Structure formats: C-alpha cells, structure tokens
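Lecture notes, part 5. Sequence design as translation. It can be helpful to think of inverse folding as translation between two languages: the language of shapes and the language of residues. The source text, in structure tokens, appears below.
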C-alpha cells in the first residue's frame, strides 16, 4: 500500500467510525413502549461498539505505518538553487509551521519607518542622518521569496512521494 492509499483509507475509516457513533447514539436506548428498530438491539449495539473499536485499531495501525515510513523516507527538494535533503517527517514539520516561522523572522528585517535626511543637532548644526542596517536587504528579499514559496514546493514534492512510496508495515 502506498502512503496516499493509507491516508485515504484513514479518512474512509474515520467516516465509518463516525457513522457507527451516530448509530450508537441514535439506538442505544428506547422507551419500553417503543418498538425496537433492530430485532436484537442490544446485540446490535455490542456489534457496533466492537466494529468501532476495530476501526480505531486499524486507523492507529495505518497512522503508525505512515509515521514510520515518513521517518525513514528521505526526500531531496530543490529550494531556490539549493538541494535540501530531509526525511518526509522533517519536510512535514517544515511545511506545517517552520517555513512560516522563518518567513516571519526575515520579514521582521525592515527600516522601522526610519527616514534618511538632515537633522538638527542640539548645538543647532544640520547633520546628515543615515540608516544603519544590520542586515543585507538583498539577502532578506531572497529569503522572503524562498520561504514564501517553500510550502508550495514541499506540498508538490510530497504529493509525488506519497503516491509512489510503499508504507512500511510490520
């Protein structure tokens, strides 16, 4: 089974588990004067509970298989002009929030609204005031562009990896 198949199967199993929860909620009790919906409603509830438990075990098994696969599957992605190699798990964390954090820190580098020009000193002299930057604006712009596009690049590559990589199932 491929990673993508496992992910899709988990979604399907979660939907089935939710359907069973709804059935259990709707049929777990009735008034004594009501006609039961099922011939042996108590047994039906037990069957649903067992089926739900079995579905959750399968979801867990698939999730662990996906995590195990993601921890050992190495992927190289070209970001900018650099090839970066990480495990799928690492790329997922980059995609989830770390690339955005890097983007936000590079966006913090700006001139804070300061303007260059002439100022008057306390002695009444005019003096030229220049901005002193402790960063390279060109590097900042390149990094912002890189980290802004990283999630899309990672998504594209991981979609392919998910489609072609077999799950490690024990």
């Amino acid at each position: 089974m491929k990673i993508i198949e496992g992910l899709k199967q988990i979604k399907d199993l979660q939907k089935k588990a939710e359907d069973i929860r709804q059935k259990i909620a709707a049929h777990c009790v009735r008034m004594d004067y009501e006609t039961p919906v099922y011939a042996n409603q108590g047994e039906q509830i037990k069957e649903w509970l067992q089926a739900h438990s079995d579905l959750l075990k399968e979801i867990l098994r698939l999730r662990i298989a996906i995590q195990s696969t993601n921890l050992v599957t190495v992927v190289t992605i070209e970001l900018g002009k650099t090839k970066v190699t990480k495990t799928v798990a690492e790329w997922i964390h980059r995609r989830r929030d770390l690339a955005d954090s890097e983007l936000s820190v590079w966006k913090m580098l700006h001139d804070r609204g300061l303007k260059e020009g002439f100022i008057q000193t306390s002695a009444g002299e005019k003096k030229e005031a220049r901005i002193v930057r402790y960063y390279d604006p060109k590097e900042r712009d390149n990094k912002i562009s890189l980290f802004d596009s990283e999630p899309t690049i990672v998504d594209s590559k991981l979609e392919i990896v998910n489609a072609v990589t077999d799950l490690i199932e024990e």
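The translated text above is only one of many valid answers, since several sequences can fold into similar shapes. The chain has a mean pLDDT of 95.
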